[in-house]
Structure formats: C-alpha cells, structure tokens
From TrEMBL:
The gene is LOC112285179. InterPro entries: NTF2, NTF2-like_dom_sf, NTF2_dom, Nuclear_transport_factor_2_euk. The keyword Transcription regulation does not apply. CDD domains: NTF2 (cd00780). Residues 6-119 form the NTF2 domain. Has a role in nuclear-cytoplasmic transport of proteins and mRNAs. It is found in: Cytoplasm; Nucleus. One of its GO terms (biological process) is mRNA transport. This is NTF2 domain-containing protein. It comes from Physcomitrium patens. The keyword rRNA-binding does not apply.
Length: 122
C-alpha cells in the first residue's frame, strides 16, 4: 500500500474509532508509545487509553481538513500530520486541531509510536 493511501486509511480508522468507540483505540498503541496531549506527556498504551477515555466529553465528531504523510526512513515507519475541526455536542463553534502520528510497522500492521495533539487557538 502506498504511503498516501495508508495514511488516509489510518486517519479514517483512527477518528471513526475515536468518535464511536474510543476505548478500542488502545489497540493502536503499545507500551513504548507516547502521547503528548496539549503539552502533557503520557507513555504506554493503558495510560494513553486512560487519558483519551477520561476527556471531559464522551461524544464528538472530527472533520478532517488535511492529511499529509512522509516516510520516516526508520523501519518503513511513517509520519502523518492531520488538521481539522472537532465538534463537541451542544457547542456552536468547532475547535480547530492538529495531530501528528508516527506509525511504526509491527506484525504486518502499524501501531502508533508517537502521537502529538494540539488545539489551534486563533
């Protein structure tokens, strides 16, 4: 699968899972994975899952604007950069966000080794 197709497939899967079945995201991370969420660093699949499932909202909808990817050269891994909008229930205005994933191959699939998320305030 070419990098652009792989990254778009991953992004669709990640955000659909986040929006509809957030606890299932744990399967995309491993114990060596790290998430930086609004500057807070979290390491390990279970800790990342706890953070994502403990956010102050249970429902949301991501609207993806752009997906850019590059091979990182390390073990056929990839860097994926996403920008978009996040709609929370009851909120009139969407929140702009950016997120970067470092995807690393393992056992015939990819897992998220690094994940950096930021809301974009303008």
């Amino acid at each position: 699968m070419d990098p652009d197709t792989l990254s778009k497939t991953f992004v669709e899967h990640y955000y659909n899972t986040f929006d509809t079945n957030r606890p299932a995201l744990i399967g995309l991370y491993q114990e060596g994975s790290m998430l930086t969420f609004e500057g807070e660093k979290i390491k390990g699949a279970q800790a990342i899952s706890n953070k994502l499932n403990g956010l102050g909202f249970q429902q949301c909808k991501h609207h993806i604007s752009t997906v850019d990817c590059q091979p990182s050269g390390l073990l056929d891994s990839m860097i994926v950069f996403v920008s978009g909008n996040l709609q929370l229930p009851g909120e009139e205005h969407m929140l702009k966000f950016s997120q970067m994933f470092h995807l690393v191959p393992a056992n015939g699939t990819y897992f998220v080794f690094n994940d950096i998320f930021r809301l974009n305030y303008a």
